[in-house]
Design goal:
eight-stranded mixed beta sheet
Length: 323
């Protein structure tokens, strides 16, 4: 039986992603049925593959041949030109155009039903996204004209989602609204039902320390609690707001599937402390499944051959369950 391939955008050239993909391929190539097609520079990939002393056959694929790929006996790549002389460079000429073209190819394949979903390597928010988008979540939202998206850091035991994503902390309180919280949580609830076959039990964290403030205006009282009351009326399993400083000490005793926080590090710091790389980043609300490893380019680890491939392995296996 032939399965639709998974598209993997190699992403930021200055990152550890090729290294962790090579480690992942070594571990999974004989264990997965779904074919994988990379989009990125074959020249760059080969240089790093040789550096790390792997010896795999590269199959160059044209964008119109994706339906012909049926296995992972070799590494399938749709080639995107990148000016490259060494396996690891300080600067990559036209890197932003290279990343943009790679994503455009992937999105064309997905729009035309040629693939089951998208997995992308990490992207430098400072270099590629600059100030145009808060993160890849918002970049893909704009590209796909999606009205409502949410970042979900998924682990089978416990997952988290921030209402605001890569927003400077000084802007968080201004960004949060009752409507935003309701939209995000309803979307996440639908995602769990559709893709995970589970009606989630959701906990919502407050914004202020201990859910208290000395100011006259309390985000908990004015925004978060009214949103929770509304969602309860919609038959969503939800409780809160809980104080963020102690919540993750006791989550196992509350039968919680998903924790929704108000800002990025409020929930990503504890989830990474609990599970390290055993979690994946999912974008809910796109017209296709999009997953990425739960880490960034990690420039400080480039060329050291010490990067952990666990999150990428979990990401690929997540799609394998969708056979």
């Amino acid at each position: 039986m032939n399965y639709k391939p998974l598209i993997v955008v190699l992403g930021e050239p200055k990152s550890v992603f090729i290294e962790i993909f090579l480690k992942t391929y070594k571990n999974l190539k004989n264990k997965i049925k779904r074919p994988i097609i990379l989009i990125g520079s074959i020249r760059h990939f080969k240089k790093q593959m040789n550096y790390f002393k792997y010896n795999y056959f590269i199959n160059k694929v044209s964008i119109g041949e994706t339906s012909l790929i049926t296995n992972n006996n070799y590494i399938n790549i749709i080639d995107v030109k990148l000016v490259i002389n060494k396996p690891f460079q300080k600067n990559y000429k036209n890197a932003n155009a290279y990343i943009e073209k790679s994503f455009n190819m992937a999105l064309w394949l997905l729009k035309n039903g040629k693939a089951i979903g998208l997995l992308n390597g990490p992207i430098s928010k400072k270099k590629f996204l600059k100030k145009s988008y808060a993160g890849i979540t918002e970049f893909l939202q704009k590209k796909t004209v999606s009205k409502n998206v949410a970042m979900l850091i998924y682990n089978k035991e416990l997952s988290v989602s921030p209402v605001t994503t890569h927003v400077p902390i000084k802007h968080v309180a201004k960004k949060i609204t009752k409507k935003m919280i309701i939209k995000k949580i309803m979307l996440l609830n639908e995602f769990y039902l559709k893709y995970l076959n589970l009606k989630p039990n959701i906990a919502v964290l407050g914004l202020n320390p201990h859910c208290e403030t000395t100011d006259d205006y309390s985000e908990e009282k004015k925004i978060i609690e009214p949103a929770i009351i509304y969602l309860k009326k919609k038959k969503i399993r939800i409780n809160g707001p809980f104080s963020a400083d102690t919540f993750f000490l006791n989550y196992k005793y509350n039968d919680i599937n998903l924790v929704v926080g108000m800002y990025h590090d409020q929930v990503l710091t504890p989830i990474k402390s609990l599970f390290k790389f055993n979690a994946i980043n999912i974008t809910a609300g796109l017209p296709f499944l999009r997953v990425s490893p739960d880490h960034g380019p990690n420039e400080g680890m480039i060329s050291k051959n010490l990067s952990d491939p666990t999150s990428l392995m979990k990401s690929i296996l997540f799609f394998e369950k969708k056979l």
